[in-house]
Amino acid sequence: MAVLKTTLLSKLAFVAEDATKSNDRTDTVRGRFIDGIKIQLAALEAEKANKPFILKRERREKDEATGETKKFEKEVRFNKWWEVSQGVLFVFPRYGSKRIALSSMGPAIKAGAKLDDVKNVLELLIEATNGGELDKALLEATERKAKTQNG
Tens digit of pLDDT for each residue in 46-82? Predict the structure, then answer.
């Protein structure tokens, strides 16, 4: 009669590596959108104080002579999400460089006549994002379109 030898590893439940990966991008998309809103809030505060807002990002560059990689800050292009039309401020939320429609009415959100109204809209967008209300619109905006093959 054969005796089955029990090993310590036999007590573990092994699965294929693919089963461990989650394809849920929701948290990443929410985080990036909120980061964008925080930059807009900083730009708004600078505009209220009549100061210029300069957005800088950390960049890396390899020195050809030494082969050493150096970090430095570089000024990057920045677009405000708000515009004035006929004395009224409108907010156009973006994900990256793309305007996103958070409603079936379109991408524009009427804020009011003052910069504080824009701040209120941006803060509401943060709350709505954290509450999951914008997940569908944000995920749709980040979908990669399949490239069509032309002839």
Answer: 999 999 999 999 998 888 888 888 898 999 888 999 9
Report how far apart, in Å, the C-alpha atoms of 93 and of each of 59, 61, 141 are. Answer: 26, 32, 11
How many Cα atoms are found within 13 Å in the side-chain-facing hemisphere of 101?
A: 4
**Rounded distance, CA 52 to CA 123, Å?**
22
Calpha distance 3→55 (Å, rounded)? 70
Count CB atoms within 10 A of the CB of residue 55.
13
CA angle (35, 38, 43) in 5-degree steps: 130
- Provide the pLDDT for residue 5: 67
CA distance 96 to 85: 23
Instruction: Tell me the C-alpha distance between 102 and 114, whole Å.
Output: 22
**CA pair distance 14, 12, nearest whole angstrom:** 6
Two tokens at 103?
């409603």
Q: What is the pLDDT of residues 119-141, one digit of tens each?
A: 999 999 999 999 999 999 999 88
